[in-house]
Every structure is written in structure tokens, then in C-alpha cells.
Specification:
This protein is elongated. 30% of the residues are buried. The chain has 2 domains: 123 residues, no CATH class; 59 residues, Winged helix-like DNA-binding domain superfamily/Winged helix DNA-binding domain (Arc Repressor Mutant, subunit A), CATH 1.10.10.10. Helix content is 74%, strand content 0%. By secondary structure, it is mostly helical. Helix 3 runs parallel beside helix 8 and helix 9 packs across helix 11. The chain starts with a helix and ends with a helix.
Amino acid sequence: MRLESRERWSDRELIAAIAARDREACTVFYRRYLQRTVAYLMRETHDPEVTADLTAEVFAAVIVAAGRYHPETETAAPWVIGIARNTLGASRRRGRVEDRARRRLGLEPIELDDSDLDATEAIAGPECTGVADLVESLPSDERHAVKARIVDERSYREIAAELRCSELVVRKRVSRGLGRVRKRLAQR
């Protein structure tokens, strides 16, 4: 079967083929979700080198986990971004980019040069760096709440305890902060 025919496959079909170690299906799936994954990780890290390393680990994890995939929707996007979020969280907790899935598959790290990093930024798109700037421009209480909730993925309860306020106050700060960011993005 040729690569072009796999382009028309659903995410479910591609992931089943990936679980069966179909390299062409893996290539199609990778191309389908590369930009979305890179954009998400670039927004979170603001670092093209870390983003490239994390992206490699995410897609290695997709290969490792493909046999356990149970679709909840037509698209695998929430699953892939969930893997990206978990990979990023594990890397932050350990203070380094996690590489467990890549090692399990026997994949060596790739040395990146400046053109690779430029390509990573290009894949992510220009809006990725702009979002970070918009978050940084928020009032300090909203900025802290948005970063704690969205970037660090902490619970409202945990943030409220740290700030010595109610969860409702934290929710309002996050909501207002994200609303400001959305409004400024729409104005662009």
C-alpha cells in the first residue's frame, strides 16, 4: 500500500497500523499532527530546542502507546496533545527533557543545528511567541494565575492556597487573563 492511500485513513486506522509497526502510517500520522504538537510545545516552552526534543519524545510515546489507544472522538488530537502535556509535565518535574519512549524504541537523539531550530519556530508559527508576550503583559495577579493554572497545570485549590484567596478568585483571574489574551490575539 502506498503512502498516498494512507493520507485518507482516519486517525483510528493510522494508530491501529502504527500499533502493528506500519512505518508509513506512522509517517502520515506524524505529518498530520506535527504542526499542532510543535505549536503547543513552543507556546509552553518558548524554546525551539526544547520543543524539538519534546516533540521527538511525544511521537515516540505515540508509537509506544498506539496499542492502548481507545478513541473517544474522530480525531486523535486530544490524545496527542494529552501525550504532549504529560511529556512536558514529566520533563518539568525532572528538570530535563524526558526521553524514556525514545530509548524504549532504541532511537538516538538527533543533534540540532540553527536551521533545525529555525524550522521548529517556523512550524510553530508566528503566533506562538506572541502569546507568551501577551501573557507577560497581563496584570501581575492575572499573569500569575494564568501561568500557574495553564502552564504549570496546577489545580485551582492549590493556587488559591498559595495566594491565600478563594478558588473563585483564582478562577476569575484566570478567566480575565485568558479573555484579555484572546481579545488581543483577535485584534491582531
